[in-house]
Amino acid sequence: MTVTDLSISQNDGVAVAGVRDYVALLKPRVMSLVVFTGLVGLVVAPGAIHPVTAVIALIAIALGAGASGAINMWYDADIDAVMKRTARRPIPAGRVDRAEALTFGVVIALMSVMVMGSLVNWLAGGLLALTIGFYVFVYTMWLKRRTPQNIVIGGAAGALPPMIGWAAVTGEIALLPIMMFAIIFFWTPPHFWALALYRSGDYAKAGVPMLPVVQGDRATRRQILLYSLLLAPLAVTPWLLGGGSAFYGVTAALLGAAFVALAVGVWRRDEAAAVADGHRAAKQLFGFSILYLFLIFALLLADHALGWAPGA
């Protein structure tokens, strides 16, 4: 095997971790969304930031998100080994040792906070430290295995990156990044509960008290609809605050209406009907929810990059 070989090799029958496995520990798909929302917070913030400083801030956000993912995989290796969706991750598959994953995550976490604090500013560094700490200690170690509200409260960690990006530019927090935080915070429960509806058997087998496992299908569908009804108007508030153009406001409202319509479709399907059609409505909502959040933040990004927003 050459040093450029990124695949998994075999050494005397024992799996050897490649670069790809350590990248997988960082949860790159989750990281990409975190970096994107952090970028939007950085771009919509008033004032100027040197391009090199902006790149450093985004790298620090990416490292912090990746470190959180690696530590999460270390702690949840027993759960990941049981669940079909996660059984092939590097630790349960035996390609990366748990202690190595923990060391990898902790070193990167410390590095990300120090880089952000010393090279950007310490408010952004503190918010990044809060994000990592909240995800690791509050969500992963405390909430995930104890309460069906794990996703609701734990979602705060994934909602902080726009505030970090804003703070990197301004050195302060304002109402607009708080509303961006709120959009992600209220988006998280319907997004993950839609997934949990058709993966509830996996969560039950692993002993994770997701809402469908603990309170059942009907309560989950009701909560999905409730959070969707709260999310839709929240996504319009950047326009009302002058942080987005009328085009953003109208488009966000239309996207919110589509989100609610899909949530109503989930709510109207009883458990028997959902099982019979393979949870089609929940899968549609889950897929659309990813597109929805991307489009909401992409519209904000375009508004400010093109100068359409009132404050741009």
Tell me what you see in this structure.
The radius of gyration is 20 Å and the shape is flat. The chain folds into 2 domains: 18-171, Tetracycline Repressor, domain 2; 174-312. Strands 1-2 form a two-stranded antiparallel sheet. The model is unreliable at 1-14 (pLDDT under 50). The protein is built from 16 helices and 2 strands. By secondary structure, it is an all-alpha fold.
Order of helices and strands: EEHHHHHHHHHHHHHHHH
Across the major sheet, the strand order is 1-2
Kindly identify the CATH topology of the largest domain: Tetracycline Repressor, domain 2
CATH superfamily assignment of the largest domain?
UbiA prenyltransferase
Derived structural class = mainly alpha
- Provide the CATH architecture of the largest domain: Orthogonal Bundle
Rg (C-alpha, Å): 20 Å
Q: How far do the termini sit from each other?
A: 52 Å
Query: Which stretches are low in confidence, meaning pLDDT under 50 for 5 or more residues running?
Result: 1-14
Count the beta strands.
2
Summarize the biggest pleated sheet: 2 strands, antiparallel
User: What's the overall geometry?
Assistant: flat
* Percent helix range: over 70%
Which CATH class of the largest domain is shown? Mainly Alpha
**SS strand fraction:** under 5%
Name the average pLDDT: 92
